[in-house]
Amino acid sequence: MALPSSGQLSLSDIANEQEIALSNVSLRSMSSTAGFTTPDSVSEFYDYAYKYYWDLSNDIKWDTATDKPLQSNTESFSASLWIRPQWAATDLNLIIFDLTPSGTTSTANRFFLQYDYGLNRFVARYRSNSTNFTRQWDLHNNNDATGTGTSSTNYWTSSNRGDTNSDGFVHLFLVYDASQSSPTDAFKLYWNATELRTTAASDSGTRSNMTLDELTFCGNDHNTAGSRIADYMFMYMWDDTTAIGEISTMYNSGSPISADDAGYTTNLIFGDRSSAVPSVNDSDDSGNYQFAAANGQSVVAL
Hints:
Layout: H1 11-18, H2 27-34, E1 52-56, E2 60-63, E3 77-85, E4 94-100, E5 110-116, E6 121-128, E7 131-138, H3 143-146, E8 170-176, H4 183-186, E9 187-191, E10 194-195, E11 201-204, E12 214-217, E13 230-238, H5 244-251, H6 259-262, E14 268-272, E15 290-293, E16 298-301
């Protein structure tokens, strides 16, 4: 929970936010941890939130969703996350997140957001009964939002992150409106609260009902071939569409914020603001999922 924006604030409050013991620490050491320069002042910590991120080179998984996302082909969905590319300029795609049925190796039913490196584009796909309902966006044809460059070879990498916040993270927000019959109307993707508007390709296949109760980040459910070296933080999902005002609130002018701090918890079905690697079967922030596997990955303080 972020510290308040006004009123009384103590060193103990700051220590609790940074999850450190108050003994043997000082305002200077806590300011240094927060990235503040001298002179030090408690008031610098108004609205402060200590941030952690997943340092990933493989996938992480949650499963056993009670309120399953996209329970029918008429249910909508939204997802918010911060990501910092750490991969080099080599041709390997990244499954940013993947919603799948548990206990199967089939790829016939899934919902995912992918970065296709070779085509330099995002792919959002509702895939049911091996039929695709998809919208794709080239990063280079949406350069006004991404800032990655106007050439198809201006790939999104650790050396070309595009427009980011001060820590090199990009805020991605995907909205899927199930009521829309066209994929260009159904899917909307936002980069730092700016919509990517130019569509590269689309598929308008029939959407069938699916049971999706497993969630994977930084790879797909079935193997690690879709994994990349990337940093993730503040991942959230809702079983509803999201308005631009709520997207802007979650973007928070480039400062990552939890759904709780943003006051956007209605219809929340997944949340992760881990300050340490959860234990297996630990609940996510929404209480809807259980942690399944870290695959050797770690959580790091920003």
